[in-house]
Amino acid sequence: MHISLALLALVGCAMAGVHQISLVKVESLRKRMFREGTWTRHVQMKHAARSMRFMAAPGGRGPYHEQVSDYEDAEYLGNITIGTPEQQFRVILDTGSANLWVPDKTCGQNKDGCDSGLCSIPQLCPYLCPNPNCCSGGGGANPCDGKSKFDSDLSKTFVKDGRRWSIQYGTGSAAGFLGQDTVRFGSPGTNQLVVPGTVFGQATSLAPFFAGVSTTWGI
Fold first, then answer.
1. Where are the alpha helices (DSSP H) in the chain?
2. How many domains in the chain?
3. What is the DSSP secondary-structure string of 83-142?
């Protein structure tokens, strides 16, 4: 009996597949901002936005300060595909979040909620406005431009979900609706890990922060 169990365990290990995905190295946002001379202002605006969020919270008393190290050169990118036939995206492999999203084909077209007072201050709009699309006016770049976008009409395995979602990051936000389709980790033609029926986010609005991340098409 013990021998049979041991043999079964060995067979299971031998049959277990190993899926690998190639990582893509790109210039970090911090290095690019240093090169362009915009890093100092970026840090100032990020700290100001944090303070505003604390003050806007119910019973907010302002932030409590603690000295920490901020490493902004720590992102890994990988290729995935969604749908049948496959639509490819390069996404941040974020282990700090369980939410997968990519830009939808309608990304950047929705301007609802732009009359909010939080959207009228250009410096704070990317951090506090409920609809990030409102922050791309005035000649600013549309953060949805230059990115691969998911088109559900082209996928025969897509299932509509429709529930709304929104995520607030330290550098901005993203929002949209949910869909369900086959997600594959890895580029087409490689040994992919295939996950049918995956629920993922179809982003219809992105914070202006993502306009400067042209090499990333999702998280």
1. 2-15, 29-36, 39-56, 125-128
2. 1
3. TTTTEEEEEE--TT----EEEBTTTT---TTTTSGGGS-TTTHHHH-S-GGGGG-TTPPP
Closest CA to 35 of 25, 43, 27: 27
Residue type, 44: Q
φ, ψ (nearest 5 deg) of residue 190: -100, 175
Does residue 144 lie within any of the structural domains?
yes
Query: For 124-146, how does the pLDDT look when each residue is reduced to its tens digit (9 = 90+)?
Result: 676 666 666 666 554 456 788 88
Tokens for 200?
Answer: 């993922």
CATH code, domain carrying 201: 2.40.70.10
**Residue 194: domain span:** 20-26+75-212
pTM score above 0.85:
no
Let me know: does 114 contact 131? Beta carbons within 8 Å: yes
